[in-house]
């Protein structure tokens, strides 16, 4: 019981109990951030999907409100599924969402606030003319879902996209509307990728190559790139690519047609799905929400009475330095939860060593910022180190030793390291002297329990000339969100330790490289809880 209670989060969003999945309709309205989510009011497993609702002033402290919409009409009786908010030119709000009908056909429905003057948007009205969109000819009745936020085209129409598939090709359809009641399907697709299967929760948004702030969904022009994202039902991960969106043709062309045609980059190399961005007009930023599921057994979820959390909302920017990826970073407001701080300056870890980091406070809620320097002599003198073969998921995790890695931190680790969750870098080098850096999280020893996921996650992370290696880790009980190089590569983990909890959990610096000495400097804050009021 105590173990199950420990898993509940201190500052990540979750309902008081029961099942949650996708983020829905995030929006800033009359001074409040609104967050809706796929919710089962009757249990800790998926089903009976309604829209949960919460509001916040700062994206961190949430107040739970009554459910916004429940499945109570023929056109959504099998579920009020995922949807998005659009703010109209006069400031009014509309919501488009997918309904699963009495015959389990996926249709799109329109809803709006009963009282637009209510900043809390407590009551919602479903448009009496629903459904407003049914699957077009040629599209399967169960392959038509998750409308995005709409944006105004230069022709003065609202445009949005919906995910689908044709045979095994994942596609996104494009629709125009003037009034959100009648719609026109555009010829041609925004994008499609053979072999990817059903595209869920598609997203499209602009990022700036010039300015440091986010862009509203309709913005375009020479200094703008467009991110297209899809959640692949077949492998349960969120993929994106950067490209150029042509407002005239409604088509998006990937920057890198060879690698990006498959939408090759992942928002997160751990557990992160069905994500959705919104433009925060208050702080002029683009913010990403993502669903973090459980990786324990369904039985355990039923026992604890809840399942899933949401990632801390992330600010998204184009990475001007690399030009090839976005940067994701926890919204700045999370830093207000920082309490006591412990600084470690230039701690040395010799090859094959573990150094305990005594912080003097509880370690189940932390914000860690760490920088690593790798011994220059080793970096220069080492030759070819499994440059072509290494990858985090196929490696033996933190136990696999190379000349220049792995090194990093062990979180939620007991004194004997029986249970440990390493988050680390691994550097490889080819015969020409080119380096490739990997960022990984190893769950193989995170829990002694047998019915939890123990995979090793991670990927490469771009590191430019002269840059130090850096990571940020948000630790919140059973959730760990890890960001490398300012958010170029991210890994979200769920862990279910049985020993390394409460006062038995600590943090360690480790260096399992065979040749390089590592010097680490860290700032570690204890994080306060973000109480949800009701
Ligand atoms: N979840 C919703 C769907 C969506 C899926 C149903 C993605 O609308 O495609 O709960 O997790």
From TrEMBL:
It is an enzyme of class 3 (hydrolase). Keywords: Glycoprotein, Glycosidase, Hydrolase, Membrane, Transmembrane, Transmembrane helix, Vacuole. Residues 333-526 form the Glycosyl hydrolase family 32 C-terminal domain. It is found in: Vacuole lumen. The keyword Transmembrane applies. GO terms for molecular function: beta-fructofuranosidase activity. Residues 12-330 form the Glycosyl hydrolase family 32 N-terminal domain. GO terms for cellular component: vacuolar lumen. May be present in two forms, a 70 kDa monomer and a heterodimer of the 30 kDa and 38 kDa subunits. The ratio of the levels of the two forms within cells appears to be regulated developmentally. This is beta-fructofuranosidase. The lineage of its organism: Eukaryota, Viridiplantae, Streptophyta, Embryophyta, Tracheophyta. The gene is LOC105155876.
